[in-house]
Structure formats: structure tokens, C-alpha cells
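Example record used in the benchmark description.
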Amino acid sequence: MIRAEASTTQDAPPANIRSLGADVSALVDDWIAKHGRPRRFERGFTTEYLNLKLYLARHGVTFDLASNQCMISRGPGRPKTVEWAKVWQLVDEFRRAEGLEPILRGAK
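Model output (C-alpha cells):
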């Protein structure tokens, strides 16, 4: 039977493990310099279909999916079939007007 003895001294970490304390902040600073700060969204915000449908409805826009196609309507009349990119642009238009972070990266 082999008994492991408890070490009373603090052992040094193995040679293949190094401390990342200072390195992590350098990596984070480097990433921010290359990509900009991470975007922040309000709590509970998602880009799921039902969430976008409710969000657009609050702005007077009807949004539906039919046969995997996006349909948008502002008021009476036939809905317009659009690509998902147009839906994101429309949502970003409203979000920017409200002073919120846009969904699409790089949208100004």
C-alpha cells in the first residue's frame, strides 16, 4: 500500500503550467485594440423570431415568416417579402433611434 504524504510546503507549479495573470490583461488589451470593445445589449434582448416580431410590432411594423421567407408590412396592404438582412437593418434603425446598440456589427 502506497501512502501519499500531505505536503506542508507550497509546491511550485509544474514547468509546463505558467501563470497567466499578467498575460491575460495583455491579451485582452490586444483584442480590444484589434476589434474594439465588446458590444453590450440590454438584459433579455435576443434576436429570436418572436422577440423581433414583438419589437417591430411596438414600432408599427408587422413581421412574419411564411415558407421560410420574411414578410414585413407597415400598415394596410400586401406584406413585402424581404431578406433577413433587411429585417436586421430595420431593427437596427429603430435601435439606433432609441440610442441602443445595433445588432449588426459595424452598423452606424
